[in-house]
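User: Working on a comparison across species. This one is 3-hydroxyacyl-CoA dehydrogenase NAD-binding domain-containing protein from Sphingobium cyanobacteriorum. Can you predict its structure so I can line it up against the others?
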Amino acid sequence: MSAVAYEVDGETAVLTVNYPPVNALSAAVRTGLGEALERAGADSAVKAVVILGAGKTFIAGADITEFGTDKSKVKPSIHDLQTVLEGFPKLTVAAIHGTALGGGLEVALTCHARVALASAKVGLPEVNLGILPGAGGTQRLPRLTGVEVGIDLVTSGKHVPAPKALELGIVDAIVDDVRSGGIAFAREALASGKTFVPVIERNEKITGIDPSVFAEARKNVGKKARGKIAPMVIIDCIEAACTRPAKEALAFESEKFQELYASDQRAALMHYFFAERQARKIPGIPADVKAKPITSCAIIGAGTMGGGIAMSFANAGIPVTLLDLNQEALDRGIGVIRKNYGISVSRGSISQDKMDKALSLITPTTDYADLAQCDIVIEAALERMDVKKEIFARLDALMKPGAILATNTSYLSIDEIASATRRPGDVVGCHFFSPANVMKLLENVRSAVTSAETIVTVMEMGKTIGKVPVLAGSTEGFIGNRMLQYYTGEAEFLLEQGATPEQIDRVATKFGMAMGPMSMRDLAGMDMAVVSRKGRAASIPEGERLSPIVERLVEAGRFGQKTNKGFYRYEGRDKLSDPETMEIIEGVSRDFGITRREFTDEEVEARLFAPLVNEGAKEIEDGTAIRAGDIDVAWVNGYGFPVHRGGPMYWGEQYGLDKIYQMALEAEKRNGPRWGPCKLLERLAKEGKGWDAA
Ligand code: T1G
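Assistant: Here's the predicted structure for 3-hydroxyacyl-CoA dehydrogenase NAD-binding domain-containing protein from Sphingobium cyanobacteriorum:
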């Protein structure tokens, strides 16, 4: 059966693409579209063609699963289809619901017109895959939206809601039903004799563009790109649209597409694309185990984390009951939530209406009884096991049967917290990252007895509230923080041995991290770090140590940004080097008899990131992480690891697991047994294999 259904309704041929799950432009769809267009062209009774998608969406792009396979070479190509469409002698209308993305939107842009449901979205997200819209997207979209908007949309890959797309000229009408609306639009156009100029021939918005527009774009996009190459190449292509004949500019775009397709960044970003989706799949859970509905949420603790979590649920339209022990703490928490929403509204990132709607969904209370009927309760109170166990015992007695009892703890044992209840299967970790209304990672943590239903529910819930969920086992620090201690720990040992905070942070940000480890310490507040390091002191084996640099800085009153000095000195928005910091660091070197030396940036980079890979291998070996890709997803979404490097485990595999293994042996000698390699890494390194052989 063809992937494209063909039927005629009056004088309109309706072509329905039916290729689940997202109607990607696979070989089957391209073949089906080619045949259906031929048929419509040959049928004298047909005066117009409407193309739409079956199921949940229009065409969501080229079929990424066919990239690099023979199927991607099957004719007609997307370009072939576009040539037929752009030269089609009869009216063609793309009728969009769900999403029209990438090649899907590019095909729609070669139709005479586009109509869409108000709930639909369109976009060119190829940049997120390390490539660019290689089927004329950089040439046609700016012809509709104008150059500056075009640059913003294509370099960001953002999805544009249909009403905005109508305003920008990307779609021609909003309809209530794709099929009947598409047909009606075609009929009216035919009846009125309306003519449509092919998008590629509309030049008014790309003519006479001042070159400074591209210089400005390169400056602004370059700052956000953090080392990604595709955004900059996209600007080149859009500039070509404005400065070269269409045919030449289209050829330029194809050439640049091929160059990007061959890049390491494209391979890393495609790895990440599939890893993020794979992370939602939990092996060993029977297919008939379904997620429970989460229609209400209770949160304990109206502090920074509790408030951010409340916003995440309210933003997804889920009512929240926010509890704190006293009215003053509650009022403060609600005040912070209001302030955060106000900032978003003033920045234009959400409307006043969305803010009001979200706030109306958050109900503050000091009475535990108000939580009892919620589908899930998330505890975000003090990071102390005694406090958590007391709360969970109370929740166990209070919450309705079947409610999920979750804790936002960042490293405490879920098994031990669950032991305070008579329903341990309903207890799970839902570890959000600060600021919880912004950070995408939701690290769900299962104990040895968390039920399959609870796991499936919080994984589905993560997606519902716009997070990227990853499932972790309950070893100390779970997936992310357990690795983080080796990244920050090695950074501090490097300081003792001769590197400077400036060099380490420069290397880390050049690598693509959102922020270097020393700056991150200053932002988070080192006084808090000292408290949690004290709490974890027992887990440091005999004969091993942590660097005392953080403690010495705190003793000197240097907590970080909150005291205007930490590793750096802060004057307003300026971050300045401070000789006092180096005195403290050099004092530690002296106390440990370390002769300081110069480090190359390459050595600093390897020493910073290799320990992440080494600990990640241990997490795969002991089952804390289900797969290497999950660790990549956690680090990209929770710790600012550059997505165009695929994640720490993908980076380590490209760098060479044999080199990672050798570095772990050296670190073991230098820092102690916790830093040595595990059996899994040793095996993969010696066999020359990658994580898929884990
Ligand atoms: N090709 C193949 N499979 C795809 C796919 C695609 N384009 N998009 C999604 N899938 C699979 C996905 O792997 C998952 O599979 C299932 O569909 C559901 O996805 C020439 C060359 C459309 C917004 O980048 O953004 O066009 O895990 O969980 O949350 O210029 O999927 O179930 O086995 O994400 O409802 C450009 C990428 C391609 C769109 C739906 N297009 N996809 O989100 O479902 S390059 C994209 C998405 C291109 C041209 C170039 C989202 C979605 P499985 P999901 P969702």
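For your comparison, note: Residues 21-22, 24, 60-65, 78, 99, 101-103, 106, 125-126, 129, 133-135, 137, 277 surround (2S,3S)-3-hydroxy-2-methylbutanoyl-COA (CB under 6 Å).

User: Helpful, thanks.
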